[in-house]
Design a protein that fits this description.
heterodimer
């Protein structure tokens, strides 16, 4: 008995809404990032939870390949949505998320985080946390594209994306963070606060991959 | 807009725009502190360091790129290179500075000609105030001369 078209279209609708949902997950991840420190985050905290959900949303079709691997065929319906009103829902929701939430609300949210950075500085804290969060929010579309480009199309795709993100952070973000650590070391030196830990951290930021290999080698 | 670009540009802005600008302020504060009872050396060194952010980062990058990127000993070797550089490059230079200071003391500067005396301190501070731009330019010149490294 063939699957009714409306059911196939509902499946198509849900799958095609996944990229939009991933963008929302990344927005929530950005907000959680600031709550967890901004320049740091808790493993197992809200930031990692929402980032993981974002990755899962984007790689869900590939995760379903596990059912085929287990011998349970999943009739994933590809192609366009045939039912007009379901197709309309998909277009409307995607447009709402892309144009309104990501295109406008997130930008305003990032602007508020820049304001928050100034307030942090007034209260004697570091403005870096809010600045980093603002940058994360402004870069959400690019981050979603990055996650998509890291997909391998296999049933391991979700883990491959996380692996790729780790490599991206270790190889691209951390060397830039080393420069920030040097700047922080000088500011701390001026303020008569401990600065050597930033020098050690800068070297660590420049050698993250090697530290990972070192830990592996110790096992 | 890419997150990586944001972080890189933030670092460049802080290191190449803000801190070199603040260097002048740090030297000015050093002169003000020199007149009063507070410690002024920290601000003077801070002025020099503020001009050397890129150089310090390039130095750390050099220390941390002497082995393969996935060599487990990379962090250790980076620290080793930092220690070697400190002990074999900076300490001899510091030794030369100490020799100069020792010679000056031997010549009587410091007790027979006491630069910490009130009248001389104020004259030196006045000269520093008048020459502040020149001092910053001189510090910049020293930093530029050092871009080729110490041979």
């Amino acid at each position: 008995m063939p699957t009714p078209q409306v059911l196939n279209d509902i499946i198509r609708l849900l799958l095609q809404l996944m990229p939009a949902m991933a963008l929302i997950c990344l927005v929530l991840a950005g907000v959680a990032l600031r709550m967890e420190g901004g320049s740091t985050f808790a493993i197992g905290g809200s930031f990692t939870k929402w980032a993981l959900w974002g990755v899962i949303m984007l790689s869900l079709p590939h995760l379903l390949l596990w059912f085929n691997f287990f011998g349970l065929p999943v009739p994933v319906a590809g192609g366009a949505i045939g039912t007009p009103w379901l197709d309309g829902i998909q277009v409307d929701v995607s447009t709402f998320v892309t144009d309104f939430l990501i295109g406008r609300v997130t930008v305003v949210l990032a602007a508020f985080f820049v304001l928050r950075a100034l307030l942090d500085a007034v209260h004697g804290g570091s403005p870096l946390a809010s600045i980093v969060t603002a940058m994360f929010l402004l870069a959400i579309p690019a981050t979603a594209d990055l996650i998509t480009s890291l997909e391998t199309g296999t049933r391991f795709s979700a883990v491959d994306v996380l692996d790729g993100l780790w490599t991206y952070v270790a190889g691209r973000i951390m060397p830039a963070a080393a420069g920030l650590a040097v700047v922080a070391a000088i500011f701390n030196f001026v303020a008569n606060r401990p600065s050597m830990r930033f020098v050690g951290a800068a070297i660590g930021f420049l050698t993250v991959s090697a530290l990972w290999r070192l830990v592996q080698g110790m096992m | 807009m890419v997150f990586e670009n944001g972080i890189v540009n933030l670092t460049s802005w802080l290191g190449n725009v803000i801190l070199p600008t603040l260097a002048g302020l740090f030297f000015a504060i050093a002169i003000l502190r020199f007149v009063g009872p507070g410690q002024h050396q920290r601000w003077m060194y801070a002025g020099l360091l503020a001009l050397m952010v890129s150089g310090i980062l390039r130095g750390l990058e050099t220390f941390s790129s002497q082995q393969a990127w996935d060599d487990p000993d990379l962090y250790w070797m980076s620290l080793m290179n930092l220690v070697n550089w400190t002990c074999n490059v900076m300490m001899p230079l510091y030794g030369v500075v100490q020799l100069v200071v020792g010679t000056l003391h031997f010549a009587g500067i410091g007790h027979r000609m006491y630069q910490g005396g009130s009248w001389m301190r104020h004259f030196v501070a006045a000269a520093g105030c008048f020459m502040l731009s020149g001092i910053v330019r001189l510090a910049e010149w020293f930093v530029i001369q050092g871009t080729g490294g110490v041979s």
